[in-house]
Amino acid sequence: MSELVNNSDHLSLGGHSPTASVLTVSNTTEPENPEAALIHFKMLEALRTENIENIQELWNTWPKNNSGGYTTPLHLSVLSSDLQVNKAVLSLPDLDINQQDSLGNTALHQASKAGRLAIVKLLLEQPNINDFLDNKAGRNVVDVAKSSDIVQLIHDDRKQFIVDRTVFLEAHLSQPTQQNLSQIVQFFTTHPRHSLLDVNHRHPLTGYTALHLATLLDDSDQVSKLLSVGANAFSRDKKSKTPIDLSKSDKVKTMLKNSNANLTINEPGQPPRMEGVLKKWTNIAGGNKNRWFVLENGVLSYYKSREDTANACRGSINVINAHLKIDPNDPCKFDVIGRDSTRFHLRANTLSEAKQWIMGITNAKSQQNSTLRKDHIGTVNLDKNPLSNDSQNYMNSPNLDRLFNLSNNGKTSPPNTDRERASSVHSEESDIPNRDTIDMNEHSTTVQFDILEKLLLSLKSTLEKDPLDSNEVERLLTAITQSRQTLSTSHQKIVEMYQQRESYWQKKFQKEADHNELWSESLRTLAMENQSILDALEKSKTNSKLDKSIKSNENGDTTLNSIAEVPEEPVGPSFDDDDNDIFYDAEDDSEFFNAEDEQEIIQEEPEQTVDEAEQVEKIEKPASKALNTVSAIKTSLAKSYQGYPAEGKFRVQLKYFKDGAKPPSISLWAILKNSIGKDLTKITLPVFFNEPSSMLQRMAEDMEYSRLLDIASRQVSSPERTMWVLAFAMSNYSSTAGRIAKPFNPLLGETFEYCRPDLGYRYVSEQVSHHPPISACYCESPNYVLATEVNVKSAFWGKSFELMPQGVCHVFLKVHADRKDGAEIPIEHISWKKVTTAVTNLIVGNPTIEHYGEMIVTNHNTGDVCRLNFKSNGWLSSDRNVLDGEVVSAQTGKAEWILSGHWDKSLIAKRAGVKEASQNLDAHSDATSHKLSEFLKDPTSSDSVILWKRSPFPEKPLPFKLTPFAITLNDMTDGLEPLLAPTDCRLRPDQRAMEEIRFDDASEEKNRLEEKQRAVRKAKEAELQRALERAPTSEHSAIKARFAHKPRWFKRTLEPTTKEDWWEFNGEYWLERERVAQEKANGNNEATWKDCADIF
């Protein structure tokens, strides 16, 4: 025994208990008082044998101020006893249910950590339980929870507590009596779970808070207590009165006025939540108006009134990226300026209220959205809504993210992941042996080891102090012997339980293995049958073709007529040696960054060779694999070209504007001065400010330099392919230079199609949403597929307005380089987002267009990235419209090309690593021109190249500063009108009248179309309302979905690569066009498009 005692220093739980690494129950660094160790041992035995009498007797002798691992019998029972024994322990007199042990754990910590669901539920039912205490490691009962079931239980209990206490609070707020006030104050100052409720909770009818009640009764003591726990002196009731307004006592008024103006938060790191009335600048006519503001989760939003909070907010700013500007002349005024230049001009009613908002926004800005330890929220919440927000704030607690998504880091995930996974399986099985008892026995054994260690330490301490005290030694040795016997019995039970469980799972495993083998055999049989069917089908097709060929020869007929329906001329561009106007070599060393050349990048289309036509034909097969909406693209494209000039010879002028006709002159400022701060798409402008084109056609101007995509598809190097796509992505901005007329806003369901047989593509777009306005497009070519959307947030600021694109542009590029004949064509997915556009100098000077921001073009297949920075304009003309960027290879991680230029002139690429940038670049010179065929043969032949140059303009400017390409978009070529969809914007009467300089007609038609659209929307809303009134609430969601607008040609889905929403083309447009064209060709002039709304 002495040997045992001497070695007791080395005894540890880790060597004995299988759960020691999971459950740390005590701190045994110091020897425990022998009497206390014996009492702990006896209490454990009483709990194990369920001897309630002994439990009560031992509690009477329980050591006070116990510093050992088990501060109360409850710490022992939650680990080692069943539910009934724990109920008996909880009934012990003067038991502190929230007492913490030497590690800072309460009994609730221990039960949560051990995963004892029933015991946790029992403890939460106790009226004075405090589930917000942290242990010495800074973790609360949710942090240490073993399973998501425990977290869910705690969450549900807190939620029910909020509901019950809210009823209590509102009942007491309804009657302004001293007794009710005292009970409210007592709750917020003494109850362990008071932080779950907001001290500024308002009564739903009167709007009173507890502070309103205290000031109404002029109880200065209660006012002081409420202010100490975060009561807000600026909270307003339903009549917009603050507590100061209700008080008649000068002492109380002084206390309220001198209350802490700084925002206080219970927990560091917790973002504040504030609500209240602020005056917001609306416009010149309206001035400052009261608006209801809400600061929550780092976002400042506003509504027209408090009652309007059920609807969408009128505007919002993420304060994390915002900055504050305080008026030096009036400290009650301050501006909140967002990252996207959104600005709120605000004024508080008092200086103290302004300080609270400024401090609240500042705190929200400084907080990091990291996982918070506490579940409660900041104490200062201006005019906080009643129950709904209390519950919602608790529901949004970061700790409760674990309800559905337990993280795998060391802090928040359950310690024993294997056991957690097993637990999830156990919940589905009702016949698992010892499912409810094995964990309890493990925890009991752990506790038993801990008690044994305490006894050994006590024995060692006793022998060192008084070796002759034989009575004390005998008592300790007896206890140790009994403890060892108990451990032996427990160990045997656990071994038997695990053996039974292992046998059970072995049977389950074998059963599942047999099932898997059966399924595998079935799949093998099915695969063989499927292959047999495919072989038979292929053989049948071969025999059928042979039969037709024999019959054709017998009849002397051929299939040339059917073949002739598909033209053999190119449906895509060629790249022969004569094409020398596309690509320019920048060899000179003096002016690389200032290429001013205006020469047209593409002057003519050379004829395509037979080899190239065959190559185009081979593109079609993989296209259907890349996008299932494109099938037999050559045939489809050829049929879509009907109505368009084969050589691409469109009009070059607006014939009605030849004599210098102009729209009437009108002051832009006179129209816009009352629209400051509004969404640009919601500002109604006279038709005279429009150009004769639709936003859908303006969107189609992206295709002006489509040849850049054709070039990209031929490049061998993936960084260079991505670079050419970047050139295409930025090229469309050149059409905006000096062009500020507003295109017509498309009506909901409006469409636009455009085909270029000479360039080998077809394009279609649709207005798929009205609020917000969103246009979607889809373009097909043998070399690429383009899918983009125009989803623009806009704002008007008086002297300027901004357009912030939200959608993602996608190109699916078919890579032809190094492809062997017959091989499948690889397809690369490349995407980007457009940059911000601003129109400035609306009042003074000439209005100008500016584009700024960073465009990032990503090749998702290769990882290559191109970055192009559109710089904001400076004061000097040389600093305007400047571009710079780089092309980074995913393989090397380094820049391979350096980009430079101007978005209204040209874009130049210089190979990275070249010592001196090319200067004096002259694209007019033959010496600097570089044939594309030479580049394709040897991409390393030049260190600098002109990727893109703006096409030259006619000597005489076109009306509205339209580009030659834009002129073609609204052209109604011969034979095209009968083939168009009835929703095509070429058929829009106000736009057509505008082009034909019938300005009064255009204005009347514009108003008529807008009123027609409103009438249709109102009729649909009324029909929806009637349907909702007739149907039960459970069917309302389905009814609303049925009445929601569904675009005809596009569908909103999730793009799988970027994980961004996009509008996917359904492939039906060109099929429907072909059907209508065929019917009209057969003499049915009344043929109409199916499911196309009458919008004009």
Automatic annotation (TrEMBL):
- Name by which UniProt lists this protein: PH domain-containing protein
Q: Where is this region: Disordered?
A: 1-29, 383-438
Q: Which UniProt keywords apply?
A: ANK repeat, Coiled coil, Lipid transport, Lipid-binding, Phosphoprotein, Transport
Domain of life the protein comes from: Eukaryota
So which residues are the signal peptide here?
none
Q: Which GO terms describe its cellular component?
A: cytosol; nuclear envelope; perinuclear endoplasmic reticulum; plasma membrane
Spans of the ANK repeats are: 103-135, 206-238
Biased composition, class Basic and acidic residues, residue ranges: 417-438
Task: Give the record's GO biological process terms.
Answer: endocytosis; exocytosis; intermembrane lipid transfer; maintenance of cell polarity; piecemeal microautophagy of the nucleus
Keyword Ribonucleoprotein attributed: no
PROSITE patterns in UniProt? ANK_REP_REGION, ANK_REPEAT, OSBP, PH_DOMAIN
Gene3D superfamilies, A to Z: 2.40.160.120, Ankyrin repeat-containing domain, Pleckstrin-homology domain (PH domain)/Phosphotyrosine-binding domain (PTB)
Give the compositionally biased regions (Polar residues). Answer: 1-10, 18-29, 386-416
GO molecular function list: sterol binding
Coiled-coil ranges (or none) = 992-1026
Organism per entry: Conidiobolus coronatus (strain ATCC 28846 / CBS 209.66 / NRRL 28638) (Delacroixia coronata)
Q: Give the family from UniProt.
A: Belongs to the OSBP family.
Q: Where is the PH domain?
A: 271-366
